[in-house]
Task: inverse folding
């Protein structure tokens, strides 16, 4: 068994359903301390965060990730128990195998080889690990970044181990992400009897045409760095449960993933204008859970692409598609941020898995990134 696989299995055995870390970070801390990293616990409410650094000088290369995992869903539907790592046909099964305990294991083994070969590396290396990525993301990476900013500790390059790959490991580097805007809308009508609609105002009927317009709207074509902005309704609730009552209100949750063609504020104004045009009586609450960020080609993208080419023979494509990530908290500090991890086909699913050989490839890629960015010139 490879070291990376071994460690990935040890991490999967820990039932770290968000925000519980279940001892994963203690394991990581022990391995890092043996390499000369200085660990620092940053606990906020029920979230465990680990910041561990080796070296006092810049530039600082940080690996970032999370030990929390999403709930398993019905365990009986798994082919093997989700917290018992199991290998079948070259694949490692278990909750978190791909998202993202496999990447964390690959970080550690890459660091072990790198520090052994380059004990006097340039600059510094750090790990930023949280147990609040899959949850509300309020006491995790964002809080660690606040602490680092307060003490002027600056990350120059950050590699997030989210499962970025699509068809084969290393085919995609995520070099940014779209923004995410949530709206919570309540449309008010007047409750009444379904047989006497003229004495009521049905908020579901009133909302309908506005929803059609919002759903059909073409927001933008995206741009060179971003896919188009999308609008999706995630929840709609209205009604008393009775078949003969027109409800007084309807509640809607919607989300926009937006490119840099819009700001969150412009989108809010646009949606308010649509709702007003439909003359709705409504209240709306907004949450901007991510602003778009992008890392232009530069030292980190080049080092990551070079390490992938060396390890796999293939050149990666840059993408900002999909969801958002904790990179949204790190990029605004001025750090270059990329995401590179295993194939994401089974993340959050029943029977989540990762290719065993991909774990070793990832570890080699991460070591290649370290070598390109902070190995002393004579040895890189
Ligand atoms: N619940 C949190 C964080 C939500 C982050 C989530 N990210 C992904 O699902 C990653 C998927 C991918 O790699 O494309 C999301 O985008 O919703 C919050 O809302 O703050
Ligand atoms: Zn993840
Ligand atoms: Zn996830």
Result:
């Amino acid at each position: 068994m490879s070291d990376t696989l071994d460690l990935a299995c040890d991490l999967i055995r820990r039932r770290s359903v968000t925000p519980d870390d279940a001892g994963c970070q203690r394991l990581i801390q022990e391995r890092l301390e043996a390499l000369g990293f200085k660990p620092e616990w940053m606990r906020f409410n029920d979230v465990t965060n680990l910041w561990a650094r080796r070296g006092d000088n810049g530039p600082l290369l940080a690996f970032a990730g999370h030990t929390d995992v999403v709930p398993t869903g019905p365990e009986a539907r798994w082919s093997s128990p989700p917290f018992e790592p199991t290998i079948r046909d070259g694949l490692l099964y278990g909750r978190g195998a791909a998202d993202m305990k496999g990447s964390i294991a690959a970080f550690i083994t890459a660091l072990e080889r790198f520090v052994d070969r380059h004990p006097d590396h340039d600059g510094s290396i750090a790990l930023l690990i949280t147990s609040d990525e899959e949850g509300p993301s309020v006491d995790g990476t964002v809080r660690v970044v606040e602490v680092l900013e307060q003490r002027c500790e600056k990350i120059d390059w950050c590699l997030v181990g989210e499962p970025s790959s699509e068809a084969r490991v290393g085919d995609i580097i995520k070099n940014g992400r779209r923004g995410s805007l949530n709206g919570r809308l309540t449309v008010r009508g007047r409750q009444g009897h379904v047989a006497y609609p003229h004495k009521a105002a049905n908020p579901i009927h009133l909302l309908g045409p506005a929803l059609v317009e919002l759903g059909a709207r073409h927001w933008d074509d995206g741009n060179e760095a971003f896919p188009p902005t999308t609008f999706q309704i995630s929840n709609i609730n209205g009604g008393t449960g009775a078949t003969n009552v027109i409800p007084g209100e309807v509640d809607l949750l919607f989300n926009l993933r937006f490119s840099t063609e819009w700001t969150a504020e412009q989108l809010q104004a646009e949606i308010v204008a649509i709702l007003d045009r439909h003359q709705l009586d409504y209240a709306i609450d907004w949450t901007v859970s991510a602003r778009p960020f992008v890392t232009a080609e530069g030292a980190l993208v080049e080092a990551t692409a070079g390490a992938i080419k060396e390890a796999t023979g293939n050149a990666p494509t840059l993408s900002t598609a999909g969801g958002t990530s904790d990179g949204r908290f790190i990029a605004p500090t001025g750090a270059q941020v990329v995401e590179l991890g295993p194939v994401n086909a089974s993340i959050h699913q029943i029977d989540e898995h990762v290719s065993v050989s991909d774990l070793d490839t990832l570890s080699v890629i991460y070591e290649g990134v370290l070598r390109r960015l902070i190995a002393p010139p004579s040895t890189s």
User: Anything to note?
Assistant: The longest helix spans residues 97-117. The mean pLDDT is 97.
